Amino acid sequence: MSHAIRMTVNGRSISATVEPRTLLTEFLRDNLRLTGTHVGCDTSQCGACTVHVDGKSVKSCTMLAVQCDGADVLTIEGLANGEDLHPMQKAFNDHHGLQCGFCTPGMVMSALEVASDNADPSDDDIAKGLAGNFCRCTGYENIYRAVKAGAKAMGS
Amino acid sequence: MAKHVGERMKRVEDGRFLTGRGSYTDDISKPGQTYAVFVRSPHAHAKIKSVDTQPALAVDGVVAVYTGADMAADSVGGLPCGWQVIGKSGVPMLEPPHPPLAVDTVRYVGDAVAVVIAETKNAAKDGAEALEVDYDVRPAVASAVKAMEDGAPEVHAEAPGNLCYDWEIGDRDAVDKAIAGAHHVTEFDLVNNRLIPNAIEPRAAIGEYDQANDRYTLTTTSQNPHVIRLLMCAFVLQIPEHKCRVVAPDVGGGFGSKIFHYAEEAVVTWAAKKAGRPIKWTSDRSEAFLTDAHGRDHVTKAQLAMDKDGKFLALKVATVANMGAYLSTFASSIPTYLYATLLAGQYTTPVIYAEVKAVFTHTTPVDAYRGAGRPEATYVVERIVEIAAREMGMDPAELRRKNFIQPDQFPYETPVALTYDTGNYQASLDRALELSDYANFEKRRAESARNGKLRGVGLSCYIEACGIAPSAVAGALGARAGLYEAAEVRFAPTGTVSVFTGSHSHGQGHETTFAQLTADRLGIPVENVDIVHGDTDRIPFGMGTYGSRSLAVGGSAIVKAIDKIIAKGKIIAAHMLEEDRDNVDFEDGVFAVKGTNKSRTIGEVAFQAYVPHNFPHDELEPGLDESAFYDPNNFTYPAGAYVCEVEVDPDTGECSVDKFTAVDDFGNLINPMIVEGQVHGGIAQGIGQALLEGCVYADDGQLVTGSYMDYAMPRAEHIPDYNFDFTSTPCTHNPIGAKGCGEAGAIGTPAAVINALTDALRVAGVDNIDMPATPLKIWQALNNTKQAAE
Lengths: 156, 790
Prior knowledge:
Chain A is 33% helix and 16% strand. Chain A is α+β, with helices and mostly antiparallel strands. Chain A starts with a strand and ends with a helix. In chain B, helix 7 links the parallel strand 10 (215-220) and strand 11.
């Protein structure tokens, strides 16, 4: 049994037919070939698959594609404006906030939510905002710096 | 030309990672691709009575199902171990067979029994669920100590008593004599907790077979594609090496766990030909917990003998190391040559003896995890030194100083087989004490006490042996591979450069660091340098990245190739300038005739090399493309001093790392930003080992910590304020003077954290807590002593 769904992904209108058990993350990666959204676990702990659905950060492994029928979805591929990185992406580059890059898309999408209404997040704000995202490489230190710089740049 | 070495240059690889354009194995899809799901044993030990593949084959979309019997029928070999340890009295280690798919017995939860290949991942999952395996469940043993007891369940008939090897190093008689005559002997029993590496990218592998050219391609999450090709072709699948290409594209973290040749790689490659379709397998996290090689898992007894002034006289160590159910690729070398050889630490301890019993159990194989043996050694040495200081009533920093190898003693030969080339341990400790404001610690302790908290401080002065290593030395110690690195530096006619390296970057930033190194040495713009790695069809035969070796060994191979380019370029330039080559110097990208303004740039020379109209044809071949292998003549010895301050809430048992100071000596640095990032990450993993992470097996061999809900990973909230600095004694035997920085944090940190924690708890009468020191353990320890006192 398949379901017809429509959604907007990174500003592009999409219609597709999916099995009801298809997760949003599978839909993005396998159907749309948007492989920037990564899968790092199967218990919704790691946050590598974080995207925005209707402006809120969501672990795309916890949502079914059919639940996003009619939604506006933003993934890591939709952030940069052509060759110009989004200020948060740039801040991660400036502050060496990534190493292997695998957790990075989810980390940046969660960081955007931290910064969305706070141009000057405290360490505590960032720790809480990134509580659902693992990074095994950076030890988080430079991610704190990146999120602060990114939030400041977004606020200005 | 701007110099880049030493510059905090932003990483060139970040662009693709930040925009979702990385290309990790699971991001890659091949035309006609199918999906593999493995059927894994739910039992730690069982005989396989039968496997019924029919129900799986009946599932819609299932293309093929293969079992261990199918692989055995094709004469597929077992997964090999790359290091032969010779035990006491010359007895070699035992190497029971490790079939990629179990044939008649499963030996750990997660041991693969069959593979289901289907048109979609869901169909493969459905097929795997439908497949029926009839098991005869047998008793299992998970603990290495219990596995050595009489009557313990046997893992392999080939290994009686579950003993893989019983190995020793050092002079036992001299150590026993020194202990017998010592003023004081500190004794310490410890557990080095088993860890699960948890790179955030789960392992994945895509097998392809090209019938037209009789050629296999394996795309895999590996730190060393040539090593995988060699092991898989020569030992497992018996494929001629030139008929196999292994590609390790963007890899999402390794930490050692992606060094090894895993069963799934061999299975998808072999099955791709049988099924006639490309096959992709991607581990889910649950599978990763069960099947990625684990790390550490030692049980150790140690004794440190001292004279009345605290001078170390002897160290004696006995360790039981858990190998898991099978010998993983480098498992045997970790608790021997990467562990016991480091037990001298930074000290002049004149005699050391260690014996290590490696034991099979019904658990996931154990192998290298960030630091690999050296964190275990540092934990033994730095914990027992701290305890000794407490017992002797001495300042732990002072006791260390008293026993440091002095700067004028290098090269220093330890009693456990290594020769340290250089170091200055006093300098790094002094700087760390200064940065951490050690002198005023008691004021902070009193302040914490006023707030009802227990504060402690702990030191850790680590040493590691990196580079892994001179091939001849490694070979003499049992390595079955060479341990050099290879590089090719290739100019294009228009002056841009491609560097092909056998090192592999999975977070380390080689595309940046190696470009900085190359641009400076050749005097060309850094954007004109491209670093190519991870594809056996493109790069020279290289050994890959582990043991903090990429810059010290891989970078040195690049330098050697560049030196050949410059030597050839000099002859070409001399010919172009009609000058004696001995009068031509090369500096900053320019070949210039001494004392004149006559010169040619390296770009002009490269063009002439490829458009050789005015070229010394009688002496040289055209082209500007040189290769080099670099085999170091010693390990490198990064070292440093870490100071940790923790605060414990006695009501909840919660321990927070308040301040962490790290002063490392990595020799010369190319990109300090990247080096600091490596140390940050290592420290986080070290804090994870000390306070959070612990792999737990039930007695029956079930993995209790099999998900992120059960295995505590460090999160952003767990990270303290770091203080950093570097000291530098450049490596004396490689052309860069670099020592390696990838593992230091994970090596030095656990002892610093637990020394600080036990210092904090001393006032409450608690003198040891095994890692991970969770709030529960700390609270129980505090309350047990309270009860005992009441």
